[in-house]
C-alpha cells in the first residue's frame, strides 16, 4: 500500500494545526474523507438532487439509481445475499435501536435474557437496558478476562436457553479487542438466540462477510469508513427482517394507506420511513469504492503494522499504561502517570496532534479499568510511522511540561 | 501554538490548586449535596454546601477530573465561603463571562486566584471543565431556594 498516495487523497490532512502539520489520530471517533467522497456528494447536490422512488422525472431516476446502486455496493462489501437485507439508517446507533425496538419488543418477555459484555459502547448497552425494562427481560454480561478479552467458556455459561438476544461489538473502540463474533454467533444459535454484531469498529478496518460470520444482524456507520456522517447500515437475515415491524412510520415505507390501517413496502424500504439519506448513501457508495480500490486486507495489514510499531515505541515511555490485550485492532488507549487525559490531549493539540480523551462512550468499561478517563490514539489507512513518532514525541513533551507538577 | 500559549492555560496557581486542592472533603453538620457530571468527558464533582441565613458557611468538594475542573472547584469553594448566596451567584456570572472572553463589571467582588483561569477562554474545548463546579454551585443554591 502506497501510504503517500493514500494521504494525497485526503485534502484535510494537508494542513497545519496550531503551527504544526496535523497528525490525525482520532479515526475511531470519525475517519477523514477522501476527495472522491466529498466530490461525489457535491456531484449529487449539483447534478441530480431529487427525491428517490417517486415521480417520473429524469433527475429522480438518476438519484434513485445512485441510491440503490450504493445499496448494492454495501451488499457486496459485507457479502450479504441480497440488497433486501441492507437497510440504510442514520448510523450504528440507529441500527441497534431499530433491532431493539422492533425485534426486541416483539420477541422478549419476562424471564428472557439479553447477553452483552462490559466492553460495549453505550449504543450497544442502553437500547438493551431500555427494552429490558419495557419487556421485563433481564440484561446479562459475559465477564471480561483481566486482559480485556472475553472467553468462549464464559460465553457458553452466560448464554443459556433463556437467552433471546446476544449483542456484542466486533472490535472494542477502547481496548482494541477483536471479539470472536463468529464463534459467539454459533453459541447464540445453539441456544436459539439471535446474534447482533456492533460493527462500528469492524467494517471500516477488515473484510466483513456476514454470511461467514453467520450473525443475524450487523450494524455499522459510514462516517468511520471514509463516508459522510448521518448514514449507516443495518444488515439482517431476511427471515427475521421480514417478520419485524418497522419502527418509523410515514412516507416512503408504505405500500397502501387506508384511513385506519396501512401496509408496508417490502424489504428493505419498510425500514426506511421518510425521505432517505440520499446524499449520505451516495457518499458511502463512493467510500466503499475508495476502500475497495486499496483493499481491505491491505488496510488491515497496514493498521496492524502501525499499531505494533506504536505499542513498541510507546512502551519506551516511562509511566505510560496501555489498556487492552497485546493482539489488538489499530488503536492504543493509554494514560501517562498522573496526567489527566484532557490535559494530555490539550498539550498534544498544541503540537498539532489530535487524540481522543475521555470515557469513549464506554463508562462501564472505564469503571472496569478503574479509571475515570483515558487517552486514545486510533489509526487508519492514512496514518504513518511518522505520525506515531510525532505522538511519542508529543507524549515526551507532555511529560516534561507537567513534569514538575506531578 | 507555542508553549507560551499553553502557559496561559496551565498557570502555576492552577497547578497548585490541582495538586493541593483546598476544601476537598465533606462538610460536617447540615448541608446540601449536589452531584454533577460532565457527560462528554467523564469529569464528576460532588459539592457540599452549608448555607445559613443566606450565607455560604462552608463549601467542600470531591470528584474526579482534569487539572482545570479540579482546580476550578478548589478555587470556587475558596471564593464563595463566607459570602452571601447573592454574591456567590454574581461571581458565577462574572466567571461565565470571563470564560466567554468578555469583560464584565464585577462589583468589586474579590475573585482572588480565580482570575488565573482567564486563559481557559482561549481553549474552547476546556471551558466546560472550568465551569463544572460553578454550575454545581448554582444548582445547589437553586435547590436550596426551592
Instruction: Report mean pLDDT of chain B, rounded to a whole number.
Output: 90
The amount of beta strand of chain B, in percent, is 15-25%
Tell me the strand order in the biggest sheet of chain A: 4-10-9-8-7-5-6
Distance between the termini of chain B: 46 Å
Structure summary, number of beta strands of chain B? 3
Number of helices of chain B: 5
**Percent in helix of chain A:** 40-55%
So how many helices of chain A?
A: 14
What is the level-2 CATH architecture name of the largest domain in chain A? 3-Layer(aba) Sandwich
What Rg of chain B do the Cα atoms give? 14 Å
Structure description:
The complex is a heterodimer of chains A (406) and B (146). With 406 residues, chain A is α/β, with parallel strands linked by helices. Chain A has 2 domains: 140 residues, Aspartate Aminotransferase, domain 1, CATH 3.90.1150; 256 residues, Aspartate Aminotransferase, domain 2 (3-Layer(aba) Sandwich), CATH 3.40.640.10. Chain A contains 14 helices and 17 strands. A 7-stranded mixed β-sheet of chain A has the order 4-10-9-8-7-5-6, sandwiched between helices. In chain A, strands 13-14-17-16 form a 4-stranded antiparallel β-sheet, covered by helices on one side. In chain A, strand 13 and strand 14 form a beta hairpin. In chain A, helix 2 runs antiparallel to helix 10, helix 3 packs across helix 10 and helix 4 runs parallel beside helix 5. Chain B is an alpha+beta fold and 146 residues long. Helices cover 43% and strands 18% of the residues of chain B. Chain B has a 3-stranded antiparallel β-sheet with strand order 1-2-3, with helices on one face. Chains A and B meet through helix 12 of A and helix 1 and helix 2 of B.
